[in-house]
From TrEMBL:
<keyword id="KW-0862">Zinc</keyword>
<dbReference type="Pfam" id="PF00246">
    <property type="entry name" value="Peptidase_M14"/>
</dbReference>
<keyword id="KW-0378">Hydrolase</keyword>
<keyword id="KW-0964">Secreted</keyword>
<feature type="domain" description="Peptidase M14">
    <location>
        <begin position="125"/>
        <end position="422"/>
    </location>
</feature>
<dbReference type="InterPro" id="IPR057247">
    <property type="entry name" value="CARBOXYPEPT_ZN_2"/>
</dbReference>
<dbReference type="Pfam" id="PF02244">
    <property type="entry name" value="Propep_M14"/>
</dbReference>
<keyword id="KW-0645">Protease</keyword>
<dbReference type="InterPro" id="IPR036990">
    <property type="entry name" value="M14A-like_propep"/>
</dbReference>
<dbReference type="InterPro" id="IPR003146">
    <property type="entry name" value="M14A_act_pep"/>
</dbReference>
<dbReference type="GO" id="GO:0004181">
    <property type="term" value="F:metallocarboxypeptidase activity"/>
</dbReference>
<dbReference type="GO" id="GO:0005615">
    <property type="term" value="C:extracellular space"/>
</dbReference>
<comment type="function">
    <text>Involved in the digestion of the blood meal.</text>
</comment>
<keyword id="KW-1015">Disulfide bond</keyword>
<keyword id="KW-0732">Signal</keyword>
<comment type="similarity">
    <text>Belongs to the peptidase M14 family.</text>
</comment>
<dbReference type="GO" id="GO:0006508">
    <property type="term" value="P:proteolysis"/>
</dbReference>
Length: 465
């Protein structure tokens, strides 16, 4: 009887999930490269009319733009481009297949990769429950080093859960590191990167990894937007925002109707909020929320990091996103000619350049480095800028992981491990350079000295080349 009941419940749950999960059957993904401002304007008009969902929120001439088009809009979309003489390339002719492949059940008899660690591996993407369970396992297995922490609750009352890794609880002069994962729900590789870093911290015997892991008190949150993350597994794979309902409104028949049911958490932080690269339209993927830090997730992160900042010096705040392969340096609202706005911009730039160079050596993956105005588009209300402005954090980055748009948010699981290996290379180089620049010592003079020597070294390198 019990068994039967459980079966019935399971069937009910399954049926429910299947019924609700948005299908992208025969949705196409197109690539367009606007050559000039006219082309950009044509694309914006298409975007505003809801004829396609754009993976690039902003774009300029020469940017590759990826646009998801549902079957009923396909003819109109193609015709409009033809009229405007814009070339278009079909990337995928059935997105549902790519989504399915990204999360395909492991084939019967497949062996788990040698990289598994407790209940997790990096051959697949895992959902919130599985990740949180893994964090519990680690806390149990490493009671003196790992503790689970809950920084707050999401709108739907889920824990925003992470771990603290501290090899030296006795230390009083704390140096702190913070890793932020999956603020944007659909960027799954962000979570898979962070869990790998955790595994390396706990298992690697490489002296540089050991130093990176043990010199800092780490606060690591693989999924800071749990509601959104869950929703990408159960409701809509392409969800980006949180699940706020405060600004619910119908976004029109062309757009998924519940689009307004969410806030872009990476536009919601209370620093130059809603000044640039953000939207006050609840139907936009860049909706900044009704007011600065309106969202509980935003408040939880801000509060948590402020408390850390009181307890010690935050050396790193790293927010992992995807895609487009770049290190973004604060501040994101400033124009190119104001890139020096952050006090230690030069150091953050130097560290990121060396990190990106090292990262590229393993598989040739190329990352760009710069402030948002140079590598992405200006934006406001982001977490990593807020952290840099409001806390004592020395090095704050937003890292956009793989790829360059071949799969975008739907990066195949087979790329998780290569991505993780190269990112770890980059982070280790980051830490070595940070150390070289004197950030682990308190004397500011040494920072300036090393900074100068790095600049001179850089100039020499340019001359030599
Ligand atoms: C999303 O944002 C709204 C504010 O508009 C907030 O009330 C809600 O709790 C957030 N959702 C989640 C899942 O945290
Ligand atoms: C969102 O909701 C809040 C609270 O109801 C309201 O004050 C605000 O004007 C709304 N914003 C938009 C853009 O609809
Ligand atoms: C924070 O931002 C304000 C306003 O842009 C600026 O005046 C201030 O210098 C910034 N502080 C830091 C530490 O970045
Ligand atoms: Zn993102």
């Amino acid at each position: 009887m019990k068994v039967l009941l459980i079966c019935l419940i399971l069937i009910a749950i399954n049926a429910n999930v299947n019924a609700e999960y948005k299908s992208y059957l025969n949705y196409k993904l197109y690539k367009v490269n606007p050559k000039n401002q006219d082309d950009v304007n044509t694309l914006k008009e298409i975007q505003n009319n809801g004829i396609g969902e754009f993976w690039n929120e902003y774009f300029r001439p020469e940017d590759d733009v990826r646009i998801m088009v549902e079957p009923s809009w396909e003819n109109i979309f193609l015709e409009r481009l033809k009229e405007a003489k814009l070339e278009v390339k079909l990337i995928f002719n059935n997105l549902q297949e790519i989504i399915y492949k990204q999360k395909a059940p492991r084939q019967a008899g497949t062996v788990r990769s040698a990289n598994s660690f407790f209940s997790l591996d990096w051959d697949d993407y895992y959902d919130l429950e599985q990740i949180n369970h893994w964090l519990d396992e680690l806390a149990e297995a490493y009671p003196n080093i790992v503790t689970t922490v809950v920084m707050g609750k999401s709108v739907e009352d889920r824990d925003i859960k992470g771990i603290k890794i501290d090899y030296h609880p006795e230390r009083t002069d704390k140096k702190i590191g913070f890793l932020e994962g999956t603020l944007h729900a659909r960027e799954w590789i962000s979570t898979a990167t962070i869990t790998w870093i955790v595994k390396e911290f706990l298992t690697s015997s490489d002296p540089d990894v050991r130093a990176f892991a043990e010199n800092l008190e780490w606060h690591i949150f693989p999924i800071v937007n749990p509601d959104g993350y869950v929703y990408t597994f159960t409701g809509n794979r392409m969800w980006r925002k949180n699940r706020s309902k405060t600004n619910f409104t119908s976004c029109g028949a062309n757009v998924n109707d519940d689009m307004s049911n969410g806030v872009d958490l990476n536009r919601n932080f209370d620093f130059v909020w809603m000044t640039v690269g953000a939207s006050n339209d609840p139907c936009s993927n860049l909706f900044a929320g009704p007011s600065p830090a309106s969202e509980p997730e935003t408040q939880a992160i801000s509060q948590y990091v402020l408390e850390l900042s009181d307890r010690g010096e935050i050396i790193y705040y790293i927010a992992f996103h995807s895609y487009t392969q770049m290190f973004v340096i604060p501040f994101s609202h400033v124009a190119s000619n104001q890139m020096l706005a952050a006090d230690n911009y030069a150091n953050m730039f130097e560290i990121a350049v060396r990190s990106a160079e090292k990262l590229s050596q393993r598989f040739g993956t190329s990352y760009s480095v710069g402030i948002a105005a140079n590598v992405l588009y200006p934006m406001s209300g982001t977490s990593f800028d807020w952290v840099k402005n409001y806390t004592n954090t020395r090095i704050s980055y937003l890292i956009e992981l793989r790829d360059m748009g071949e799969f975008g948010f739907l990066l195949p699981a087979s790329q998780i491990i290569p991505n993780n290996l190269e990112v770890m290379d980059g982070l280790i180089e980051m830490d070595k350079t940070t150390k070289l620049l004197g950030y682990y010592t308190t004397a500011d003079a040494s920072k300036i000295f090393y900074s100068l020597s790095v600049v001179i070294f850089g100039l020499m390198a340019i001359l030599v080349v």
